[in-house]
Amino acid sequence: MALRTLASRKTLAAAARPLASAVSASRGVTTFTLPDLPYDYGALEPAISGEIMRLHHQKHHATYVANYNKALEQLDAAIAKGDAPAVVHLQSAIKFNGGGHVNHSIFWNNLKPISEGGGEPPHGKLGWAIDEDFGSFEALVKKMNAEGAALQGSGWVWLALDKEAKKLSVETTANQDPLVTKGANLVPLLGIDVWEHAYYLQYKNVKPDYLSNIWKVMNWKYAGEVYENAAA
Amino acid sequence: MAAFASALLLLPLPPAAAHPQQRQLRSREQRQGCRSRRYSKVVAYYGLTTPPYKLDALEPYISKRTVELHWGKHHQDYVDRLNKQLATSMFYGYTMEELIKEAYNNGNPLPEYNNAAQVWNHHFFWESMQPEGGGSPEGGVLQQIEKDFGSFTNFREEFIRSALSLLGSGWVWLALKRKERKLSVVHTQNAISPLALGDIPIINLDLWEHAYYLDYKAVIISFKLFRKAAFETSQRIRVLRVNLDQR
Questions:
Q1: A189 is in which domain, residue-wise?
Q2: Which residues of chain A are within 8 Å of residue B74 when distances are taken between CB atoms?
Q3: A interface test, pick of B110, B169, B210, B212 with most A CB neighbours within 10 Å
Q4: B247 and chain A in contact, CB less than 8 A
Q5: Are A217 and A194 part of one and the same domain?
Q6: With an 8 Å Cβ cutoff, is A210 touching chain B?
Q7: Are residues A122 and A220 in the same domain?
Q8: pLDDT value at position B96?
Q9: A134-148, B77-91, B148-162: which has the minimum mean pLDDT?
Q10: Which among A67, A152, A175 has CB closest to B191?
Q11: Strands (DSSP E) along A75-220, which ranges?
Q12: Domain shared by A157 and A217, yes or no
């Protein structure tokens, strides 16, 4: 728990404000705060080390949140001034840092300690949909691992629900592009971070080992709930 | 055919027995008359070039462990994957620079591009650094930097700014823009190289997380920077010392 001091402090500060814990308002600009993890940093070991989780949350995610808020404040100022080029220029920082915040917030919920049910394959409607759209659960895992391993540079591999086609698909996005950049009809059920910072301290260059181990701590209950809400 | 094969060796040979751990993958040539029919013709693939210094020579800026992995695993993997592709590729027999330009395919890269460019980019990265380097460049490069950036300090600041504003994996370069006849600082995503765009790289810095994560994590990069004296016939390489505040 000691490792989580920073996050806890942030969460407490956010909770003290009148709005919901993830969002707060100052000077008219909506700002975001780093969400707390639903488990301890070391709780996903040995699949993902506590050191990776701590840095990933306290440094990487926290930096995306800070830079997202900064960009939003700059955007607010640019809009107030009617500075059209500045508004356009800020789009890449908003997409990158906002995407980083959105993606990591999903990612933390996608993981769960084994003792709490992490790694248990999906049941219910999502389980059926996976069999129907990919043939089997194993085929889905194989496909996501292959796409994750083949992704050049930094990015994410997703299990998505296409709300319109009512079909599951595997998607990849570059850098911190959130899934919504590939279509508003796509709902992220699972996202796997394949940036090197997500595994390098533990797995070094062996990305396939990271990809095969992460399924041991996958929170399919969460994915199933998102699926049922979105498919309803 | 033998001459053709040796033309593939664009990259300089490593110093003999520079490092015991180095893998001698270079130019796997099998000549006529070999026992195996499979190797009955001359074949030549790319080899992993060795950094021109010991693997711990960049400490404390870049650790031996990082270089071991970065060179011995990442760079090696790109070489291996390229060679595997070349076994059945239309690009077999191209020089590395031709291959990179052709496979870039005007911005719609063919499968070989990524591996070839990353082999070259990493080779160039190792060549761009030198232990006990630092300070300011001299001669033609310095004159050109002063002409195009106003001063060496301006160039350095722009280089750092460009590095920090890269979103995701990639490289930052000092490159000579061929058309403009001007030095320029550019950053590129993933495996993109100024070579593919027809420009001339002078120095590069790897900004993939694997280049610095073990040593610097997400916090601060205190990097050594370097230049490749491409304007000078001497090919002397110096290192500039630069601090990069990480994103």
A1: 116-231
A2: 205
A3: B169
A4: yes
A5: yes
A6: no
A7: yes
A8: 93
A9: B148-162
A10: A152
A11: 155-162, 167-174, 186-193
A12: yes
For residue A108, pLDDT over 90 is answered with yes
Q: What is the CATH number of the domain that holds A100?
A: 1.10.287.990
Residue among B49, B12, B209, B241 nearest B130 (CA):
B241
Give the pTM: 0.81
Radius of gyration of chain B (CA): 19
Q: Is residue A27 part of a domain?
A: no
What does the block give as tokens for A1? 């728990």
Same domain assignment for residues A102 and A180: no
pLDDT (tens digit, 9 = 90+) per residue, A190-212?
Answer: 999 999 999 999 999 999 999 99
* Mean pLDDT estimate for chain A: 90
Of A174, A175, A196, the CB nearest to B209: A196
Split at pLDDT 50, 70, 90, the class of B45 is confident
In a domain, A142, yes or no: yes
**Does residue A170 share a domain with residue A130?**
yes
More confident residue, B233 or A94: A94
ipTM, 2 dp? 0.84
Residues A54 and A141 in one domain: no
Number of structural domains found in chain A: 2
Is B201's pLDDT higher than 60?
yes
Q: Chain B closest CA to A41's CA: distance in Å?
A: 17
Where do we find the tokens 């850098």? Answer: A175
pLDDT of residue B20: 35
**B146 CA to centre of own chain:** 25
Of all residues in chain A, the percent with pLDDT exceeding 70 is 88
Which of A81, A113, A145 is the last residue before a domain boundary?
A113
Question: C-alpha distances in angstroms, A205 versus A191, A193, A215, B74?
Answer: 20, 15, 19, 7
Query: Does residue A24 lie in a domain region?
Result: no
Question: Pick from A80, A113, A146: which residue ends a domain?
Answer: A113
CATH of the domain at A149: 3.55.40.20
Pick from A145, A135, A202, A132: which is nearest to A172 by CA?
A145
pLDDT in tens, A30-84: 789 999 999 999 999 999 999 999 999 999 999 999 999 999 999 999 999 999 9
Contacts of A152 in chain B (CB under 8 A): 114, 190-191
CA dihedral B20, B25, B29, B33 (to 10 degrees): 70
Encoding tokens for residue B172? 């930052």
Could you tell me if residue A161 is inside a domain? Answer: yes
The pLDDT, as a whole number, for residue B19 is 38
Between the alpha carbon of residue A10 and those of residues A5, A17, A24, A102, B123, the distances in Å are: 9, 11, 12, 18, 44
Confidence at residue B133, expressed as pLDDT on a 0 to 100 scale: 66
What is the residue extent of each domain of chain B? 64-233
CATH topology of domain B64-233: minor pseudopilin epsh fold (3.55.40)
Query: Quick check: B62 pLDDT over 90?
Result: no
